[in-house]
D-malate dehydrogenase (decarboxylating)
Amino acid sequence: KTYRIASIPGDGIGVEIIKQTIRVLKRLEELLGTFNIEFHNYDWSSERYQNTGEYIPTGGLESLKNHDAILFGAVGSVDVADHISLWGLILPIRKMLGQYVNVRPIRILPGLSSPLKDCSIEDLDWVMIRENSEGEYAGQGGITHEGTEYAIANDVAVFTRQGIERTMRFAFEIALSRPRKHLTMVTKSNAQRHGMVLWDKVFHELAPHYPEVKTDKMLVDAMTVRMVLKPRSLDTIVATNLHGDILSDLAAALAGSIGVAPSSNLNPTRQFPSMFEPIHGSAPDIAGLGVANPVGTFWCAAEMLAWMGETKARSSLMKAIECVCAAGVRTKDIQGTSNTFEVTEAVIRALEKE
Ligand code: NAI
Ligand code: MG
């Protein structure tokens, strides 16, 4: 079987880690010999935007549809305002390709340590499901009296029953597939009295359809405390676009580093390809130094393989990543001294030894 993968490195460290991830995938393909991967590179970046005025050229989204999956690095540059770059590249892909859930597994990889006191590998093993198409990132709103002292800006969070329900069903299914079968829903339905109240309502309606899943609800502010003080009490988590975005950075830090955390932007209907990207951004502070942690993107590649049905390839890659982390070949953000290339080489060697 041949898979067609669109790679979009984007900006900053995105370019460095996607390059290394492709090397790892190519070696894995050779070693297993059970599938082929064809990479199609898309140079959609902030540099391109500065030269041409657009991130995605005309017809670009259509051409992405001719792939089995998309591997994405990061977008964001000090030369372009962040809302322009995000809305120019990543958000249109998520929205136009129907990638309505964002799945973020979080656990402490072997050899890594949590900044939390006495937090072992068993204490922190979560999957965060983030609504990925609407809510606070609906993009609606505007500004009136712009440029005056009377400026008023609105960002309208749009929640639809259909959007909430499909995300929550997905979350219940994930919870059901995990040993602890526990789903926590996060909102701020005390202060935001329309959309978040609809989240509560849909959650209560769906829960009886999943009698094996234990459920509870948290307000997002209290949730941050629970994540830090009682990590073991959590398992599967479902949250809105904004809350899921924020909580997953916190979760990643609690599991060791933002540099190791993967995310899958899934189109569960499989009508269009899904996109796999690390949760971190383009990290301008370390871009070009060759020291970015590639592990989050390697983990994304493993999730991508699994989504395409290559579960054996996923386990080989995860095993190699875990073996390298445990052996101490790590970047600085996870208390190591190796650079991006050295970690990649170590992962390739580990694959060869399997
Ligand atoms: P960031 O995630 O890029 O960086 C935050 C901190 O974590 C920095 O100190 C960075 O050096 C470190 N870090 C991130 N990834 C790392 C890795 N793989 N290895 C080692 N250290 C790592 O977030 P920040 O600084 O808020 O945003 C920078 C740019 O990225 C902005 O333009 C922002 O809009 C964009 N961004 C893009 C995202 C995307 O493409 N999906 C997601 C988040 C931010
Ligand atoms: Mg984020």
Q: What stands out?
A: The first helix runs from residue 13 to 32. The radius of gyration is 20 Å. The chain has a mean pLDDT of 97. The pocket of magnesium ion (ligand 2) is lined by residues 245, 249, 279 (CB under 6 Å).
